[in-house]
Fold each of these.
Amino acid sequence: MLNRRTLLAASAASLAAPKILRAQSSTPIRIGEINSYTAAPAFTLPYRSGWEMAVDEVNAKGGVLGRKIEIISRDDAGTPQNAIRLAGELVGDQKVDMLAGGYLSNVGLALTDYALQNKRLFIAGEPLSDALVWSNGNRYTYRLRPSTYMQAAMLVEDAAKLPAKRWVTVAPNYEYGQSAVKWFKLLLKAKRPDVEFVTDQLPPLGKIDAAATVQALAEAKPDAIFNVTFGGDLTNFVRQGNTRGLFENRAVVSVLTGEPEYLDPLGEETPEGWIVTGYPWAAVQTPANKSFTDAYQARFKTAPRMGSVVGYALVQSIVAGLTATGGTETEKMADGFGGATFETPIGRASWRKIDHQSTLGAFVGKTALKDNKPVMVDWRYVDGASVLPDDAEVRKLRPAT
Amino acid sequence: MDVVLLQLLTGLSGASSLFLVAAGLTVIFGVTRVVNFSHGSLCMLGAYIGWTILTHLPRDPAWFVAGVLLTAAATGLIGMALEMTLLRRVYRAPELFQLLATFGVVLMVQDITQWIWGAEDLPLPRGRWLRGGVEILGGRFPIYDLALIGVGPLVLGLLWLLFTRTRWGTLVRAATFDREMVSALGVDQRMLFTSVFALGAALAGLGGALGLPQASANLNIDLTVITDAFVVVVVGGLGSLVGAFLASILIGVLQAFGVLLLPQATLVLAFLVMAVVLVLRPNGLLGKAQATARSASIACLVRPAPTALKLFAMAALLVAITAPFWTEPFLLSVLTEALISILFAASLHVMMGPGGMPSFGHAAWFGIGAYTVGLLVGAPLPLALPLALLVAGLIAAAFGLFVVRLSGVYLAMLTLAFAQIVWAIAFQGVSFTGGDNGLLGIRRPGWALDAGNFYWLTLGVCLGGTLLLRRILYAPLGYAIRAARDSAVRAEAIGLPTNRLRLAAFTLAGAAAGLSGGLFSYAKGSVFPTYISIGHSVDALLMVLLGGVDSISGPIVGALAYTGLYDMLLRATSLWRLVLGATIVVLVVAFPEGIAGASQRLWHRVRPT
């Protein structure tokens, strides 16, 4: 039956046919990238520098599959509804071959659902929510950063060695904070049945009442503190904690605090000896990191942040997936990315077939002050693969597969 | 006991910080009646300017005080410039219109600040004295926080002296009480307004700079501060300094104990307090009933559209109906969203324009509709959509009982409090709303999967709904609602039940917004708490104000202009906030009666009727 749609489709196809033939070799592979550039500039601006540098490097070497790559970038202004609309624009108007990006977990999940509904590939860079690859995971979505679960698992290893028995937690009141606390408690109790958690503080994200929170935590008289706050909340928390003596003679285990974007603003008030995940960019002397940090500083005249690595590695991981797939057809990429291995400035990683999580790891170490500037010391790189649950557990967590 | 005392001191120090930012806002509102959204931005500028000044000064107490005062002076000058270049031009515009202008400023300041100071948080290196603490009751209490407890009352005292012991202060109090009379007695209002605005801005800058030892200068200060400050000002009673002081102590102390006893509640505690206070005392703790300003614009008559407009509307409708045949899929999805925005804006217009009840929390109804659809997994669309309307309407009717007793900014803030409570339920109710991760995977039935079919459904529902609202405004009910707005006393004298009429308008607005929210869920395939965020409520407000409150076609024009502009700029430039803010400011100055209102005026000038 002929209707307007098939007619349109037929005429469009006949017009476009020669173009498609040409496209195979000369047109670039287009990646639609969406992130919270205005809502979270401290992370996303270095992130943009990172992927810009990676794209230029890949293209200078001739691109991938004989084609250059091109990123069309959009700002979601921090809301999932914008992200979905822009995804529609990138796919429908800009004809991108895949989607990538994301910073906030809810934006990441919105795009995950978009990918499923519209059968498009989505490579999430930063969003940490476990739901992205587990409870809401689908065949079209991959995620690069170590998840909330992985970050907590990395820290638990060191936390379990502490003598501390009485713990308190402080985490921003949203999914990331809540699940970080949930996993940390679960994993630590598995290793150390003798610990108890006495108080949970859940300040609203970006609006911590640091004085009252610190006072309430001190009141619980804990041996150790698990902290998930970051950014402005962390700065306020540390300042009040320092003046009120909260951290004296107490162990603190803290997620992401070693990342330069969150560590640097603590300045000379950085508390020493916190066990953190992060990125000691200046100290890691591997050739991959050295050449990345040198090139980055030469080009942008500023130190790389964690965001820079995520942006850079995102492009590397996509290039590896494309190479493994050998084309840009969505269904093939959805299968083909799985198992692809890629190099990043901080280490080699691969895309897992089982849940589409990458095995990219993070550095675990301690905070310290060097020349009155915050640094990470006693660090080691923890491979993401080593902290993920076993396959049977993952299948339970990921109902879609 | 020690716990209670330490937490009390902590709360009092927090209260001082709250009071400092709220004081400026309440002073400005009292005299100029401007709902100054940019107050938070001035506070943020105070923090950044303070950071720049203080990092160049020696780290001891005397220099700290000097630096903070210098910062306050600098922000005062910025406020003065703002008043002279922008606000002065829009004082005569309808109520709340200045809000639009100051919102444009908020957007611009965000980009400008990031451009000058960069994206990363700037912490002020603290001297030893700023880090010190004193032993109180076995706990260590920061000296700075202790000093801050004294700063609040000190500033209150100085302001009291200024307002009661100087001629300028007497004039300001007179203007707060009766602006027109002061003007009639020959007092230069311009000078008075400019100086009051400068004082308010200086207080904002003072608050921003004094926050530096506790928090970094960062790009989120503006929005955090503005909501806090509004809550304090409204709880205290608009224009009342002592009220603001009491309110900040109430909220600061409750906050401190809330953290101790029920940490999750901190998300909405301040808004809960505000809701309770407003329900019990419709004018805040110490506020007086607002005297209706005599110069209030006499609302223009609602006239049927001229023939030319009708023809134009028919042509536009034809274009809209045929859109699926000639547009790209993406443009179609943008149009679908624009249609939903039209109904959303039109629903707010019903209560804000003819109903005379401005709302800062209209997204609540949108969100309730959206979550109704999201939670009714598996319910067929023809059932779920009417239910979205019904649920939102019913909740609006129940909540409206409290709202319609209030007026003006108090009413608007009570709707905001309710929206924040709904938001917190959606945000916190992880087990049934999915928390901030939202509800995913809302699927449209087979026939509506096609973008074209869904577009036609949206077109039918949204235009139908908007036209129905319009029809109601021309019906006797609509005339009665307007009568209740324009002169409640006379309306009651001829037997109109004004409160019930207002409730009807409120319910109607809530139900229609719920319907638009339900459609939005289907359009996006997911629901998030961001649908209920303050930002989304402000969007609705901007659309109505931009289009023009006094014109029936205002919300339609406003919704199309705002969503179109926003979407275009978001994709075109990374400096979209600067450009959008500047555009809003220019529109506000050029069309103080809104776009539709201005076109109406121009039309009547060309074709006198």
Amino acid sequence: MNKESKIATPTDSEIVFGILNNSESAIKRLYVAYFPMVLQLIINNNGTPDDAKDIYQEAVIVLYNKIKKGDFELNSKLKTFLYSVCRRLWLKRLNQMSRYGGDLKDFQEYVPVEDEVEDQNERNLQFSKMQSALGMLGEPCKTIIEDFYINNRSMQDICERFGYTNADNAKTQKYKCLQRLKKLFFQQK
Amino acid sequence: MREEELLEAIERYISGNMAADERRAFEQLRLQNSDVDQRVIEHQQFVGLLKQYGERVELENRLNAIHSEIDVHTLVEEATERPVWIVQLWRNHHSKISVAASIAIFAILGTLFVAGSLSSKSGYIELRREVDKLRTDIRGGKYRNVGQIAKPAVLSSEKYRGTGFAITGNGLIATNFHVIEKADSVYVQNAAGKSYRAKLVYSDPNSDVAILKITDTAFRNLGPVPYTFKKSESDLAESVFTYGFPQDSAHYDDGRITQQSGLNGDSIDYQISVPLNPGNSGGPLLDSRGNVVGVVKARLTQQQGVYFASKSSYLLAALDSLAQDSTIRKPILNSKNTLSGLTRSQQVKKLRNYVFLVKVYAKN
């Protein structure tokens, strides 16, 4: 698998355009191409394959968002960027676990990515708050909110799924759910 | 405007589903009413976050799906750094290697210990004479006097020989502990070649002193010993001599006190330059005025001319202990020295009757 992926390492522009065009295969090729590199970094620096998976997915998400936002400047290779983000994330993780011996074994060159990692951290915090708020919301609110705001379903669909007699009832219900979600979200520290 | 209606309006405004005039009116309201404006922004952000959250969850699921297709195990094998073979060997087998190394170390230490190399007394040999050796030497034709081969006893045979000297005329004999250490029975033989049975009455392995008592009924009192025992320490460079039985007949040798302490600073001993050989052990060390200053006992094998004698004060201490530890009364030591003023050869002639060959019999 590794050898095949090495042969078929996609070019950076292929990936960038693929992601911009929501190509499923582009992200897969990206993922497969650079995972071994990150795995090598993590497991040779006190990590497990599961750590590698967490860190790498986080980094891929950073890259994905950066490309989607359209401000990805190709001033470094995707590979270098991914490696740098993973390296940064792993350093932070090691520090949190007090497992950092002060000496990270490097396998690639890297560039400074502190800002990206900080942004990502901020966003992760928001998302985890949202996740727990949604978790606490309960049904049917959770599904209504997810269907409407995330899955972009129409109120008509939602009415039918939950058996509301008219759209107004459903709207009132959705409104109440949203208010509660907001309350739950902002309550969290 | 009710809350719910406001929210609906905001949603329609954000999604761009408002008719042109309604939109204008709403924008007007936003400008006038900062509260409404705030609500719009807040809603926009919150819904945006909700949407991003949804996208994130979806992206994570996609990545997980991709990840599940990867053969992580094989990659781990490949990504693990292969250290050089010696490090790998160490990592895989370090416990075995450690055990082997410890065994090797123990074996070496054990061998050295058994061989005596680790002892602080390396090269220090005590000078009793082993009779078996003597016998082979005689067979080898080194000695003519074949008639003096020790006759083996029934159960035990003669094993070692040393020298002893009379402390008192009534048959108290001083020798070295190492001479009689393994004895079943001990005989002392005088200059005339007559043997008397003796028993051990006191020994002190620490100062290497042993005291024998002649128990043989054939033994007649020797008369007062010609020498006295020196209580104080002798000076460096003092001229000393010994008389003993490194061979079957009495042997004289002299030298000087070369150091007032023994091996490794041992205060029990003198170092002397009197040549000693196996068999000399237990013999008296006398100074030129005929005082017993020590008991000769050992030499170094690795250095030439280094010999040892224990100081007479330890012999005297042993005599004190003897009185306490046994039924024998404290011996009254001769205080009249009849050797002083005599020439060396006259002194030695007088000594003859008071120095014995100590024969030690032990089981084979």
